[in-house]
Specification:
This protein is mainly β. It has one domain (4-54). It is built from no helices and six strands. The chain binds zinc ion (ZN).
Length: 58
């Protein structure tokens, strides 16, 4: 499970970017690609009602 602080997803790669993506309690998404400009990596996330997971499928 990914870290969300004050409604913002923290980048799981560098953990320095604390505003990777806005997560609302009712946010739901599948295979959403987010790009971290701090460490220049792409992360695919699944969000289930505000709970964020890194997608394991390629
Ligand atoms: Zn990052």
């Amino acid at each position: 499970m990914l870290t969300v602080i004050d409604g913002w997803l923290v980048c799981p790669r560098c953990r320095r970017n604390k505003r990777l993506l806005r997560i609302n309690p009712d946010t739901t998404a599948r295979h959403l690609e987010v790009y971290c400009r701090t460490c220049k990596s792409r992360i695919i996330v699944d969000i289930e009602r505000g709970q964020s997971f890194e997608s394991q499928s390629p």
